[in-house]
Amino acid sequence: MEKDKYFRTTNLNLAVFLFASNQQIGGINPVNAEQKEFAFIKTDFLEELVWLYKFGDKDDDRLLVNVHRYEQARRELLDRLND
């Protein structure tokens, strides 16, 4: 994988938010024996979502994700982590 084509994070909560927001995950890679990173296909919209998640106004409607979609995304990513 080319580094600049992917946004990488070890933050599970951010990864779940991005995945629930229909962002395409390119893979899950080991960082070390105890940690893995999520690699998302980098797009302008993904970078906007990351900025909003980290620095934006917490009342911004773009941070809202359907609870069922969020839980489904969380379960799927946790399953992938444990594979």
Characterise the protein shown here.
This protein has one domain. Helix content is 43%, strand content 23%. The protein has three helices and three strands, in the order E-H-E-E-H-H. Strands 1-3-2 form a three-stranded antiparallel β-sheet, covered by helices on one side. Helix 1 packs across helix 3.
Radius of gyration: 13 Å
- Most strands sheet: 3 strands, antiparallel
What characteristic shape results from the CA principal axes?
A: globular
Helix percentage: 40-55%
Total helix count? 3
Query: What spatial order of strands do you see in the largest sheet?
Result: 1-3-2
| Unreliable spans | none
Average of pLDDT? 93
Order of helices and strands: EHEEHH
How large is the share of residues in beta strands?
A: 15-25%
Number of domains: 1
Helix/strand/pairing category = alpha+beta
Count of strand segments = 3
The span between the termini is 20 Å
Detail the topology: elements first, then pairings.
Layout: E1 6-9, H1 12-20, E2 25-32, E3 35-41, H2 44-55, H3 67-81
Antiparallel strand pairs: 1-3, 2-3
